[in-house]
Design a protein that fits this description.
about 200 residues, alpha/beta, Rossmann fold, 5-stranded parallel β-sheet, binds guanosine-5'-monophosphate
């Protein structure tokens, strides 16, 4: 059995990353890596589902124990990827999705050069602003900050292997699936397949 793919996804907030990933995750060959964080759960979030919500002390112990593949401090809280679960799922052949911000993604790129790095962008910064306003969960001030932050993040997209533009959901999901399909056909990944073809030759 081939090992699964490690797929790292970053996107500025408000560009619909969650909706795209929910569609992808309907296929059970994909596994969403649950991160650990020191931030408090938001309403509706559950421990072990959205995140492992842990204390700062526990998080720092896990860093010392080398139990995190990567971690970053974001808006005053730690976020990190637990290593053990990720390794187990990849060994089971699952395509593991890490939904992480840019600093963490760059750490993973150094550690796991075989990973696939996908950046999801909105069709334009103007459209992102329109979506955030329509969502109506933030004040104008917060929206302006998020929009400015998003523009900065989008400039880092060139550090990723692929860009998916989320203009229409179906197109974004199809692009995502096409990337995964093409990656699986790469010779490096298809080594077992080639050995099978050559068996008894
Ligand atoms: P939120 O607090 O909105 O859930 O997440 C804030 C940011 O942290 C998002 O950009 C999210 O992708 C990122 N994030 C979530 N989990 C991890 C993680 O394990 N590592 C890193 N580096 N970033 C993460």
């Amino acid at each position: 059995m081939n090992k699964g793919l490690l797929i790292v996804v970053s996107a500025p907030s408000g560009c619909g990353k969650g909706t795209v990933l929910n569609e992808i995750l309907k296929d059970d060959s994909f596994y969403y890596s649950i991160s650990a964080t020191t931030r408090l759960p938001r309403e509706g979030e559950a421990d072990g589902v959205n995140y492992y919500f842990i204390s700062k002390e526990e998080f720092e112990n896990r860093i010392k124990e080398n139990a995190m593949l990567e971690y970053a401090e974001y808006c005053g809280n730690y976020y990190g990827t637990p290593k053990k679960e990720l390794e187990e799922k990849l060994a089971e052949g699952k395509n593991v999705i890490l939904e992480i911000e840019v600093q963490g993604a760059m750490q993973v790129k150094k550690l796991c050069p075989d990973g696939i790095f996908i950046f999801i962008v909105p069709p334009s910064v103007k459209e992102l602003e329109r979506r955030l306003k329509k969502r109506g969960t933030e004040t104008d001030d917060v929206i302006s900050r998020r929009v400015a932050e998003a523009a900065g993040e989008i400039k880092q997209a060139s550090n990723y292997d692929y860009v998916v533009v989320n203009a229409a959901l179906e197109d974004a999901v199809e692009d995502f699936k096409t990337i995964v399909k093409a990656e699986k056909l790469k010779t490096a990944y298809a080594e077992n397949l080639i050995n099978e073809v050559l068996e008894n030759a």
